[in-house]
TrEMBL record:
Nucleotide-binding recorded as keyword: no
GO molecular function, a single term: monooxygenase activity
Protein name: NAD(P)/FAD-dependent oxidoreductase
Keyword Oxidoreductase: yes
Alphabetically ordered keywords of this record: Oxidoreductase
Gene3D superfamilies in UniProt: FAD/NAD(P)-binding domain (3.50.50.60)
Pfam family, any one: Pyr_redox_3
Length: 374
């Protein structure tokens, strides 16, 4: 077992921002703190996103602190652009990310006020943990009666590799979900499919105007409020609405964005509604989002009766040694940047032995949601 001051779990935007600030405040990577990630390569969840999600199609991707991302070709997949950028970033700041290391559980070490981090690559004892594990590893599949009967294919956004595959070309496709990813999938699949049906639980809210800092602040405040109450964080799009782009306007003219309400069951050959209507389908694509990947924190019993983890800034109210970054209101690239900085400021005060000094220092994760996630 190795002893360190801090373990950072996850090397996406939130984990790397945290590592940058830990180093900046004088801690040595690999000695005073370690960053663990179970993915095979740098890039956080970006490395797994579909190739047609080009860099030009992500809006408001904020650079990590201390190093700009310049000159990227907007036509290249964001998985490649951001994977390379994160690789340079890790080298430039000598962050020594250990991968692939899967964190299996975090529990109280029962000695020295430490936390025990158990992983596929050994155990660490730490005085604080920054959890930056994102959501990609926990795709959310709603349960709908009859799902197991369906003879076609069912995929989730997490397994989507673009429209030019057997699952979509010339096929009848049902896309489920009201977020940005659902709309992006729908737009490109509609170009190759025989027919598409778009299903959402609630009527989608399209936002015509620009999404400025004020709207960003308002959206973050709403998600923050839920997290402060110990409720599970909701999707950001449910707060901000969908941005109406030129591409979407054209798709709407083609009739692609005609949404229908959620079906009540899946049949062998498609989906069906209570009023007796049906849609035949070869493929159902569940663009139904993700949930925080935090099962490894279960032994710490951080969850509130409402199902979420109550945070003060980024700090878990039930355990001051644990911070969650990239969670809820900080689940965006700019939010993750700010959360990393806030968590480190708080943890440095904890390590210095004066947590009161950290409390109330304004660990708000800030405004920014430049572009809402799915
Ligand atoms: C399709 C899509 C498009 C988006 N577009 C934008 C955009 O345009 N602009 C924007 O600001 N935001 C966007 N977002 C949101 C943004 O990607 C994230 O909020 C942001 O990158 C923060 O990432 P993160 O570090 O919290 O998580 P991630 O990038 O998911 O990183 C988490 C890391 O933790 C690791 N990990 C997870 N569990 C474990 C474990 N048990 N043990 C070890 N390692 C573990 C994973 O391997 C991963 O590397 C988008 C999200 C999606 C899904």
């Amino acid at each position: 077992m190795e002893n360190v001051e801090v373990v950072v779990i996850g090397a996406g935007q939130a984990g790397l921002s945290s590592a940058y600030h830990l180093r900046r405040t004088g801690l040595t990577p690999g000695e005073d703190f370690v960053v663990l990630d179970h993915a095979p390569a740098p890039g956080g969840a970006w490395q797994f996103r579909w190739p047609t999600l080009t860099y030009g199609r992500v809006h408001g991707m904020h650079a990590l602190p201390g190093m700009e991302l310049t000159g990227a070709d907007p036509g290249r997949p964001s998985s490649e652009v951001i994977g390379e950028y994160f690789t340079h970033y890790e080298h430039r700041f000598g962050l020594s990310v250990r991968r692939p290391v899967d964190v299996r559980e975090v529990r109280d070490a029962d000695w020295g006020g430490r936390l025990l981090v158990r992983t596929s690559g050994g155990d660490w004892a730490a005085r604080a943990v920054i959890n930056a594990t994102g959501t990609w590893d926990r795709p959310f599949w709603p349960r709908v009666p009859g799902q197991e009967l369906f003879r076609g294919r069912q995929l989730h956004t997490s397994g989507y590799r673009g429209p030019d595959t057997d699952a979509f070309v010339g096929k009848r496709v049902v896309v489920v979900g009201g977020g940005t990813s659902a709309v992006q999938h729908l737009l490109e699949i509609s170009e190759v499919a025989r027919e598409t049906v778009w299903v959402t639980r609630r009527p989608p809210l399209f936002r015509a105007g620009p999404f400025g800092p004020e709207e960003g602040r308002a959206a973050v405040a709403l998600v923050e409020q839920r997290v402060r109450q110990g409720l599970p964080p909701q999707s950001v799009v449910s707060v901000t609405g969908l941005p109406m782009t030129e591409e979407m306007r054209r798709a709407r003219e083609r009739g692609v964005l005609e949404r229908v309400p959620m079906f009540s069951r899946v049949t062998e050959d498609g989906v069906a509604w209570d009023d007796g209507s049906q849609a035949a389908a070869d493929t159902i694509l569940w663009a139904t989002g993700f949930r925080p990947a935090i099962d490894h924190l279960a032994p710490l019993r951080l969850r509130e009766p409402g199902g979420g983890i109550r945070l003060e800034g980024t700090r878990a109210v039930r355990d001051e040694r644990v911070h969650l970054v990239g969670y809820g209101p900080s689940a965006s690239t700019i939010g993750a940047n700010r959360a990393g900085r806030a968590a480190v400021r708080d943890i440095r005060a904890l390590l210095a032995g004066g947590h009161e000094a950290a409390a109330g220092t304004g660990t708000s994760t800030g405004t920014g949601l430049a572009s809402p996630a799915a």
